[in-house]
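Sequence only, no structure available. Ideas?
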Amino acid sequence: MNKATRKTVIAGNWKMNKTPAEGAELLTSMIPLVKDADCDVIACVPFVDLYAAQEATKGTNIKIGAENCHWAESGAFTGEISAQMLSAMGIEYVIIGHSERRQYFGETDVTVNKRVKAALKAGLTVILCVGEYLEQREQGVTAEVCAMQTKIALGGVTAEEMERIIIAYEPVWAIGTGLTATADQADEVCGIIRDVIAGLYNAEVAEATTIQYGGSMNDGNAEELLSKVNVDGGLIGGASLVAEKFAKIVSAASK
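Reply:
I predicted one. Tokens follow.
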């Protein structure tokens, strides 16, 4: 495996945090800290923060993404945002299938697939989240769960479109809990996901696909996690809300 063939991507997931003004302030303080990054840097922010975030990061190496999108182009879906709306704003990235969306808002593997295809159709790059619950890890079915989620989410996605897919392995038991998969555990599951992609497409597509780890990666553990051959970056929650912590993760990814 040649990790050098893949992009390393550090993406912040702000979740439901920061007003537009607060978000712009955070990004402004982050810009000088990550300007020399040797990896892709993305901030995925709440819908109401998108415009302010874009304005704050114009001309910088920080790209802006959204945290979700709907599968329909338009319609009677009160409160939802379409991929076309994001694209029209100039947004480049969108997170799809985060465990919090699955857990609290009823998203399923099938609706995740519909959102993925809608986002790709609109020209967006997708950060696709997969991961198991603690009970599933304890039952020894982590590989099966992550393989199933990956296969269903990528249904109907072409090899060419895989160039706009980033996968984030996010063990649900390690999100916001302070628990973190060991570097070896993260590497193992990211490798399993890569093998699934090779089976769906081919080895070349699998080797080119960026697979992040996203379960409580922080400025203290990032370097060890990112040293693993199958860990190509991170989807960062809490640590993305503190400029200095996020910058340390970006620095670790740039080594």
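Residues 44 and 65 are 4 Å apart (CA to CA).
Hope that gets you unstuck.
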